[in-house]
Amino acid sequence: MSTSTTDLTAPVADAFEDPAAEMNAAVERAARRERRMRVLMPVAALLSALALWEFLVWYNEVPHYLIPAPSLIAQTLVTDFGTLMTSMWFTVKLTLVSLLLAIVGGVALGMLFALSRTVEVSLFPFAVILQVTPVIAIAPLILIYVHDTFSALLICAWIVAFFPILSNTAIGLRSADHNLRDLFTLYRATPWQRLRYLLVPSALPYFMAALKIAGGLALIGAVVAEFVAGTAGQNTGLASRILESSFRQEIPRMFAALFLVSLLGVVIFLATSFLSKAVLGHWHESEIKREA
Amino acid sequence: MVSEATAQKAPAEDAPVLIRMDGASKQFANGTVAVRDMNLDIREGEFISFLGPSGCGKSTALKMIAGLLSISAGEITVNGHPPGKGREQDIGFVFQEATLMPWATVFDNVFLPLRMKGMKKKYARDEVEEALASVGLSSFSGAYPRQLSGGMKMRVSIARALVTKPKLLLMDEPFAALDEITRFKLNNDVLELWARHGLTVIFVTHSVFESVYLSNRVVVMAARPGRVSRVVDLPGGYPRTEHYRTTPEYAENCRIVSAALEETMDNVDIDH
Ligand SMILES: Nc1ncnc2c1ncn2[C@@H]1O[C@H](COP(=O)(O)OP(=O)(O)OP(=O)(O)O)[C@@H](O)[C@H]1O
Ligand SMILES: [Mg+2]
């Protein structure tokens, strides 16, 4: 009995000769598996959905002016590459410039709000009114008053993206721990030091959350505004391509433009998420991977 | 270690007064009188404890001394200046929570007071490392606060308070949230730092045992309104090591301070 026990344990003890190395290897394997999963699973899911779509269209012989197959949409993307890219570039420009202006304006005004209660109380109603009025309802007015279409569209997209940045920056700058504030007072921090080393880092998680939202909203604002302006002619964004294709019953082209709009949205989402991780990943709870 | 511990002793009776509280009072905007008519002279090199029930104004008194709260009536001078007006390295403050910046490494957290003075990182390295070494955290300078245990965070906080080599160290229930083993260890660490750097320490606590173990004078405070009810002198027992906890003198001191604290509780309605 006793001999058989030793016989059994011998190889086990061998396998765990270096428990630390064993553990490290296991942790690393788990991490690699997790990374692979995070890329592979969504890609596989998307590809199967496309395959299913292709199959159903083919199997049911759905006509392409109702629902085009993914392969036809891809083909349209290639044949209309020139016009679609011009439109895409227009929408990208519109979205990014409006987002940039929203960041500049939102952060500047948010800082002002955080500095002065009076300013906040006086100006906040305007910000709320801008936010709660649907952009689609104001857009026609803006298009009448602003003659340059790009500027008019820019204003619409900016209105939508601006508010989350403003409100989160203001809240974030106020969110600094009060004991840390006392500490900065104790060491006689200058206003600049306080801003740089306390308020900005405290506000950063709030700002990043706002940026993720505003990125998507800027695109929505750009597309919606262009839909409203659509009849005004000369503008050439992706939304106009969708409208135009719908008038001409070119459904595959419509899907192709739609695909590019989604792609743009996904890229913006990934970019802001990546940025957030890069900036907050080393310390903030929202971006730290929890140990299981 | 032993030689440093033996340097512990209560300051001489005629040591110069560092902090003078002269009828100091604090009334908050909502009408609460947090501290009423507090008179106290704290001499250089003292280790003094503020002991009292919750809400008796211990933190308020400490913050007034640090210049973080205005004084409603009376006067406080620190080193001859009104609070917060002396040289900045005069005071180190340890909050009840570790109060570290979660986005900064241990090194950068401890570096903060020097950075506020306009010092460049590369010149501050020695001082920061020395402060970290004094609390036994040299090997953690690159870690982030979330990677530390509660007791380690508290020690970072103490290192930060010491990095400017202050003469005065104010500690607001620094170890209240820690387990007893860690607390005893940090108690010894603080006593050792006090002796080694010749600090004056004001230590706020709820614990009779902690106040008796650490201080040469216990200021017992009563609530509603917050005020000093008794001051108990405890000049003996040095050097205070774990052995001191087992002596009859320590037991007797605990009994005296407990009795003084109980007196203050007599006229307190608990559910305030
Ligand atoms: N900012 C404030 N505004 C109004 N009242 C306050 C404020 N801070 C403290 N107080 C009141 O002052 C009194 C003393 O508070 P303080 O924080 O000094 O008590 P404490 O002795 O430190 O208590 P604890 O041991 O619980 O920390 C309490 O009654 C409290 O309610
Ligand atoms: Mg307190």
Automatic annotation (TrEMBL), chain B:
Keywords: ATP-binding, Nucleotide-binding, Transport. Belongs to the ABC transporter superfamily. PANTHER family: ALIPHATIC SULFONATES IMPORT ATP-BINDING PROTEIN SSUB 2, TAURINE IMPORT ATP-BINDING PROTEIN-RELATED. This is ABC transporter ATP-binding protein. Coiled coil: none annotated. Residues 19-244 form the ABC transporter domain. It comes from Rhodosalinus halophilus. It holds the Pfam family ABC_tran. InterPro entries: AAA+_ATPase, ABC_transporter-like_ATP-bd, ABC_transporter-like_CS, ABC_transporter_ATP-bind, P-loop_NTPase. One of its GO terms (molecular function) is ATP binding. The keyword Nucleotide-binding applies. The keyword Signal does not apply. It comes from the Bacteria.
